[in-house]
Amino acid sequence: MAVVELKNVVKRYGGGLTGKAARSEEAPAVDDFNLVTEDGEFVVLVGPSGCGKSTTMRMIAGLEDNTEGEIRIGGRDVSDVAARDRDIAMVFQSYALYPHMSVFENMAFSLRLKKAPKSEIDQRVNEAASILDITHLLDRKPRALSGGQRQRVALGRAIVRQPQVFLMDEPLSNLDAKLRVDMRAEIVKLHRKLGVTTFYVTHDQTEAMTMGQRIVVMRDGRIQQIDTPNALYARPANMFVAGFIGTPSMNFMKMRVGDDTRSLKGETARFRAGDAFTGDLLDSHRGQEVWVGIRPEHLQHHEGDAGALENGLSGTVDVVEPLGSVTMVQLEIDGHRITAQLEGDTRARSGDTITLTCESARLHLFDVVSEQALARQPVESAATA
Amino acid sequence: MNAQRSNIGLAVVGWLVALIMFFPILWMVLTAFKTEQTAFSTTPEFLFSPTLESFRTALAQGAGYWHYAFNSFFTAMVSTLLGLALAVPAAFAMAFYPSKRTDFTLVWMVSTKFIPAVGVLIPIFLIYKSLGLIDNDWGLIMLFTAMNLPIMVWMVYSYFRDVPKDIVEAADIDGASTMQTMFRVILPLALPGLASTGLLALILAWNESFWSLTMTDHNAATLAVFIASFKSAEGLFWAKMSAASVLTVTPIVVLGWFAQRQMVRGLTFGAVK
Ligand SMILES: Nc1ncnc2c1ncn2[C@@H]1O[C@H](COP(=O)(O)OP(=O)(O)OP(=O)(O)O)[C@@H](O)[C@H]1O
Ligand SMILES: [Mg+2]
C-alpha cells in the first residue's frame, strides 16, 4: 500500500534516438503527466486507443523508462529502480501466465524467487486461491483453463505478492460481456478487501465509471481531466471528456449567446440559460457562438404547445431504437444529429416532428475554439439528482 | 468427384517424388547386401541372394568402424553442446535486449554461410597446422561448432522470439533476475525449439565430410573418412562402401526418428489469451 506520485512525466519513444533528435521527433506518447494518488486508491486510466494508457502503466511498472519527470512509489523515487524491485504486481491483458507451470506454481513463482519458506508459500497461495475461488484448479496448467479462469489466476498471481501497488492493463477485455460485468464487481470487491493502491487501464468508459474512485481521462498522451466519476459526468472539463464519458454520448449543438446574455439561440432551438450559468461567462461571449452540450438522458419529450417553451428544440425523428426501459430517438435539429433518451413507451415514431426540452441547469457550454468548458454548472444537485 | 480425382493425382505425384528421392538410399541399402561382383554389374539387379559379407568386412577389426564411429559421435555431440552453450546466450541477448544492429548482426552471421568451405580451406589448414590441431578431435569440434553456430543462433533466436513478451515482462515484475527469467521461464518454453536446433546441429556435424576428410588422417577421423577409405588405391569397393554408408547413416536416422516425436510443439498454447 502506497501513494504513487507522477510528476511532469513524459515518455517519448525515440526509436533508439536520444537527445535532441528524439525530442524533435513525433509527439510524445505521454506528455506532462501529473497525478498523486491517495493511499489505497483505485485509479482508472481511460481514453481511446493509443492515448498512452499502457505507456503510463508500464512506466509505473518499470517496464519502460520515463523520458522526463519523476515517479515515486511510497515516497521513494523509482527512476533507477528495476521493475523487479518496485514491489508492484501487474495483471496483463493477455494474462501472461507461465504456460509450463501449474496454476499453483504460477502463483507461487514470485514467492519462490524470494526464497519464502514453503509453508508460507502454501498458505499465501491457498489463501489467494480461495479468495478467487480457484482452489480446485491449482494443479492444472494454464492451457486447461477457460478465459475467465485464466483471468482469476492472473489476479491470484498478483494478490499473492501482497504488493504496494496493483497495475491492471485492460484485464477484462478478453472476456465475454457477462463475465466482464461479474469480474468487474469482483475486482472492486477485492480492492475494497485488500486496500492496495490500484491503477486500472480500460478504454471502456462504463468500466471506468463503475470501478474508479478517481478517473484519469487521457487523449493523445495528455491528461484531459482527473476527477471522480460523478464529477466527470456532471462537470466535464472539455468537449472531449463530455463526449467520452456517458452513454450514449453527449449531444453538441452550435448556438449563439443572445445580447441579453441570458439566452442561447440556434436556428430553431432556443434555451433560456436562466440562473444556471454565471452571468460573467455569458457576458464575455455576448453575441458569440458556443457549443452547447446536452446529454441524451436529459432531453424530454414535450407533447404540448412548442411555442410557449423557453427551452425547446424541435426536429424530425429519424431512427427509433426501443431498448425496453428506454427508447433512443435520433433526430436532425439545426443540422446537428441529436440523440434523446425517452421513455420506453414513448409514442414518437420515425418521421414525426417532435419537440424536446431540457432543464437549463443540465446544459454544458464550451468555447468553440478551445473546446474547454465555459461555465460549469454551479448547481450541485443537478449533477447528482 | 473432381476434387477427389485431383487428390489422387496429388498423391501419385507425391509418391513419385518421394520414390525418386528415396531411390538412391534404397540402392545404397540394396548394394550393401550384394557381393562386389553383383554390385559392379552394369545391369541393375533387384533380385539377388543377399549376403552380409560387406558388413562383415566393414565391421572387421582392421577396418576400425568403432574408432571412426566414436570420433563421429564425440565430435558431433560435443560440438552440438558447445554450439548450444554459445547460441543460447547470444540469441537471448538478441531476442530480449535487441539493439539497433541486431538485425544486421543476424544477417551478417548467416551470410558467413554463403562462403563455400573450400574458400577458407587454406587459411584454416595453415592455422590448424601451426596450432597442431590437424587430426585432432578438438580441432574438428571447433570447426563443426563454428560451422553450425550461425544457423543455431538464428534458430534459437526465432524460438525465443516466439515466447510472448508479456510472459518475460511478467517474470521481470514477479522479481526474476535475467538469469532466473532465462532458466526458469524462457528455456523451458523454448525447449522443443532447442531440441530441434540441437538435433539439426548433430545431424549436420555427423554428416559433415569436407572438413573431416581434409583435416583428419586417422586419430580424429570420422565415419566420413571411414566410407571414403573404401575408395582406395586398390580400387573401388561399391558393396563395402555401401555397407559402410549404411552403418554410418543408421544411427542418426534412428535418433532423428525418435527425437521427432519429442519435438512436437504446443507448450506455449494457453499461456497468452
Ligand atoms: N514500443 C513502442 N515504440 C514506439 N511507440 C510506441 C511503443 N509503444 C507504444 N507506442 C506509441 O505510444 C502511443 C501510446 O501507446 P499506448 O500503448 O500507451 O496506448 P494505449 O492507450 O494503451 O492504447 P490501447 O487502448 O490501444 O492499448 C501510441 O501512439 C503508440 O503507437
Ligand atoms: Mg494499451
TrEMBL record, chain A:
Sorted alphabetically, which PANTHER family does this protein's record hold? MALTODEXTRIN IMPORT ATP-BINDING PROTEIN MSMX, TREHALOSE IMPORT ATP-BINDING PROTEIN SUGC
Write out the transmembrane intervals. Answer: none
Q: Which UniProt keywords apply?
A: ATP-binding, Cell membrane, Membrane, Nucleotide-binding, Translocase, Transport
- SMART domains in alphabetical order: AAA
Superkingdom of origin organism: Bacteria
As one GO molecular function, the record gives: ATP hydrolysis activity
SUPFAM superfamilies the UniProt entry points to = MOP-like, P-loop containing nucleoside triphosphate hydrolases
- GO BP: any one term: carbohydrate transport
> Which InterPro entries does the record match to this protein?
AAA+_ATPase, ABC_transporter-like_ATP-bd, ABC_transporter-like_CS, ABC_transpr_MalK-like, ABC_transpr_MalK/UgpC-like, Mo/tungstate-bd_C_term_dom, NA-bd_OB-fold, P-loop_NTPase
Name the GO cellular-component terms. Answer: ATP-binding cassette (ABC) transporter complex, substrate-binding subunit-containing
- Domain ABC transporter, which positions? 4-245
Entry keyword annotation includes Repeat: no
Q: Does the keyword Nucleotide-binding apply?
A: yes
Write down what this protein is called.
Answer: Carbohydrate ABC transporter ATP-binding protein (CUT1 family)
- What is the species of this protein? Kushneria sinocarnis
From TrEMBL, chain B:
Transmembrane regions listed in the UniProt entry = 12-33, 73-97, 104-128, 140-160, 181-206, 237-259
- Identify the SUPFAM superfamilies for this entry: MetI-like
**What is the predominant subcellular site recorded for this chain?**
membrane
Q: Which family does it belong to?
A: Belongs to the binding-protein-dependent transport system permease family. MalFG subfamily.
The cross-references to Pfam families, in alphabetical order and at most eight, read: BPD_transp_1 (PF00528)
Q: How is this protein named in the record?
A: Sorbitol ABC transporter membrane protein /mannitol ABC transporter membrane protein
Q: What Gene3D superfamilies does this protein map onto? A: MetI-like (1.10.3720.10)
> Does the record's keyword annotation contain Transport?
yes
Which InterPro entries does this entry report, sorted A to Z?
BP-dep_ABC_trans_perm, MetI-like, MetI-like_sf
| CDD domains given in the database record | TM_PBP2
Can the keyword Protein transport be found in this entry's annotation?
Answer: no
**Origin species:** Kushneria sinocarnis
- Which GO terms are recorded in the biological process aspect for this UniProt protein? transmembrane transport
Organism lineage reads as:
Bacteria, Pseudomonadati, Pseudomonadota, Gammaproteobacteria, Oceanospirillales
What residue stretches are annotated with the ABC transmembrane type-1 domain?
69-259
How does the protein's chain sit in the membrane according to the entry?
Answer: Multi-pass membrane protein
